[in-house]
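hiii so my PI (J.) wants the whole complex modelled not just the main chain, which honestly fair. so below is everything: two entries, each one labled with what it is. i double checked the lines twice but i was tired so who knows lol
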Amino acid sequence: MKLHEYQAKELFAKAGIAVPKGRLITSAGELNTALQDIPGPPWVVKAQVHAGGRGKGGGVKLVHSREEAAEAVEHLLTNRLVTPQTTAEGVAVHQVLIEEGVDIDKEFYLGMTVDRAVARPTMIFSPSGGMEIEEVAQQSPELIFKEPVSPATGWMPYQSRNLIYRLSPLPSPETIKELATTMKKLVDLFMQNDCSLLEINPLVITKQGAVMALDAKMSIDDNALYQHKDLAALDDSREKDPLEVMAEKANLNYIRLNGNIGAMVNGAGLAMATMDVIKLAGAEPANFLDVGGGASEEMITKGFEIILKDERVKAILINIFGGILRCDVLARGVLAAAKKTEIPVPLIVRLEGTNVEEGRKILEDSDLDFLVAKDMAEAAQLVAREAKRSVLS
Amino acid sequence: MSILVDENSRVVVQGITGREGTFHTQQMLAYGTKVVAGVTPGKGGRKVEGVPVMNSVAEAVDKEGANVSCIFVPAPFAPDAVMEAAAAGIQVIVCITEGIPVLDMVKVAAFLKEKDSVLIGPNCPGIISPGKTKVGIMPGHIHRPGSMAVISRSGTLTYEVVDQLTKAGLGQSTCIGIGGDPIIGSSFVDHLRRFKEDPETKGVVLIGEIGGTAEEEAAEYIVQEFDKPVLAFIAGRTAPPGRRMGHAGAIISRGQGKAEDKIRALQQAGITVVADLAELGKTASQVMAK
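here's the output for the full assembly
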């Protein structure tokens, strides 16, 4: 689960990591009151969206007067924001963060994630702040410093020193101390909140010598949300596709994509492989949907409804390899969905595995109109052909 | 032969009194697996499917000589269950549980470094040595005894592959689902080392997916040390970057973990990478006939 910058910064401030003074507003009318509390001009106006690449899309603006601030806020709240990481339609901006402008002396990158290769949370520090860390990793890997966190000892002071004393020139002794404290606090924040990503880019030293987080990215491990109800409450579902929100509530793994073939599959790996064969057959998947190993009849019905809600879907492929999920359960779920909603597009079914005969019989004995595929290759060919037909007709 | 589990494996099911635990105990018994005990703390003394339930894994080791564990405990309690099994001296621990927080697995991984146990999973279908024993949730009937090894990060996708192998006349020595999480107990390379020493295994199918670099590491190991034929399939070539595709570990982040990179690394290692999953059985026959 992703947090907004302002939410992450509130957690930073609580943890004792310095952030610029700022206010969140949701309408242009709130701007004047907000500006009274924030030192400036200059101010920084920042769109609060989950999509990355905000700066490049014009979502972050430095303004030098109240008029400029009002203009920027108005523009962000009334236009969709297109960044390199959004679709061409962009995303709506519902909230804007106004912050004091800061006099920057030096910029760093400071982040934490779990390094799967060593199975440990790892801190990443780089003197090349303000740039995309991926670019730094590619162009100058020697400027990326890493320290893993031991689950036995936690973060040790020497680890901060290992990172900081590689800087050249060295910051002042006071700043070194402050950087080390910030690192320790970041580790604690990461561990206490079951983060999957924490990123400060840039972490700056101000002209006044203070260490401050100018930006904040924070993602929480979805699997750990059950132990962090307070964080789970920060979820902003406006940032997600409405169909994905619906699927989430039904405990389904659904991701909306750009094609027109609706797919329902059991198991994440098989679902990905199904997307791949659809593409090989010359068509584009409209979604990834893994109904899971132990899906119930209700979950199947719900999944089917979600696929049908996507108006771009021109044909549907059901690909099930029954293991724990039995084919008869799947068949009943599909029929229940068909009873509720009309299925206006061709349906291709490929069933294999546990109780496959019973599943096929349930479908055949119903008045449901569908095509049977004997294997994945045939399923992909059929669904691609049917989708083309229904686009043409 | 086979690796890690065979007809002599004595299985303890942790979480045996739960819905999944009970159902799969029944399925494993039907396959011929020696399920010698179950564990649910506080429910010792009962029987499930004729299997005695105990309060601890240590008791199952003591009284029934359990040496393999299969875990169906819910995610909040699964890390503790894995560590309990390792502490009790269980050699092979299979953790089926999905949804364990990554930072909990960091602790488990560190704990296991000091033990001799092999952890398979979590978030996996388990391990099967066809005709001998099945420790997990895979449908047993699609497997046949034979000489192909299968190592996979996925569940149902593995069934698909095994089914194709069986239909192509290629039986299996041992099939392992290593799990779909970012941190797992054992890797492709760990098991390739074992299959290398197994005379019965004549060839290996690797089933990878986007996320991490486990496939690249496997490719490197294979070039250097592995001399049996290897066939691979990578799922997620069409997955959008930055989205988690069902499995917690299946994400392309920061430009790493892309299917193309994995496919390239495997091909450079001389491994046949099957592009169309539907062709896997046929391609495996060709590779093994060489």
